[in-house]
Amino acid sequence: MNDSSALRQQWPEPSVRRPIVIFGAGSIVRDAHLPAYEKGGYEIAGIYDPDSEKAAELGHHAFTSIEDAASVEGAVFDLATPPAAHAELLSVLPEGAPVLIQKPMGMDLSGATEILKICRKRSLLAAVNFQLRFAPMMLALRDAIERGWLGEIVEIEMHGVMATPWSLWAFLDGLPRIEMTMHSIHYLDSIRMLLGDPEGIHAKSIGHPAHEVAQTRTSAILDYGDRIRCTLSVNHDWNYGRPHQACDMRIAGTEGAAYLKLGVNLDYPKGEPDILQIKPKGNDWQNVVLKGTWFPDAFTGRMHNLQRAIAGEEALVSSVEDAWRTMALVEAAYTSSAQPATSIESPP
Known about the structure:
Blueprint: E1 20-23, H1 27-39, E2 44-48, H2 52-56, H3 66-70, E3 76-79, H4 83-92, E4 98-101, H5 109-121, E5 125-128, H6 136-146, E6 153-161, H7 179-195, E7 200-206, E8 217-223, E9 229-235, E10 246-253, E11 257-261, E12 275-279, E13 286-287, H8 294-310, H9 320-338
Parallel strand pairs: 1-2, 1-3, 3-4, 4-5, 6-9
Antiparallel strand pairs: 6-10, 7-8, 8-9, 10-11, 11-12, 12-13
Helix pairs in contact: 1-8, 4-5, 5-9, 7-9
């Protein structure tokens, strides 16, 4: 009998914790970064935001300038900022500094490439905050796959039908790319973690007549050849109440299967509990008792990995080099979305 309680769910802690300087004081900092770092035992050296009052409201030292924030010695720099701000901030950080960059890594592949070049030029130890990889349910799923419980993975299906409060993120107003760049990028990155890079992607991402957000509905097929079917269907405009909303992922192998519910996206930011159920090879379905949630525990694990990488205790996960490939997948998806569909022949 496979014991699901033995599955890995938490990232190991670093032997030494460096203080954290945060750039940005938005809702993601309040709802995820600060609770996660407190849970992980990290000191917050301060927060910088152009709106100094907003930064001060978070209960930590508020820096008055970017330069003051960047001058903190021995700090890890957390860029919880819109993608348009990343390049400027990275350019003023100390040479060789450790830094966590909020996803996405630029608004498009060109922006991601600029960020990659800055990080290389300044020898920054830079990771991108693709924190879903570090969620307890995702760590346990990956552990089960690596133990061979599911056999060969042949199916991944991501299904999201939600009512997302886009108004929480004012910086999104007017941006030409939203859904895949800001949301489904998490799923695409996690699929890359599980399956590697696909050969290509077919995608269509559209908006909704009820609002002006650029895209809020996406359908996509990732091409992994003839043995794996991998699809995404995500709709953020299901504003008809909870009963038929969903945010889940189904993974099937040749010998077992798994189901994940990503609870934070239901009634965000309050959310609901995450769920992981696994049917290992030769066994019935099991409920995996989770020891944490995507928000905030994945953010804690994300920081643990970066701080351990600083100390040489392990390799850096989701480095800018790897994150660039996720950005390339998103770019390919938008390219596909802009292409005309194959037309249907008219009758003779």
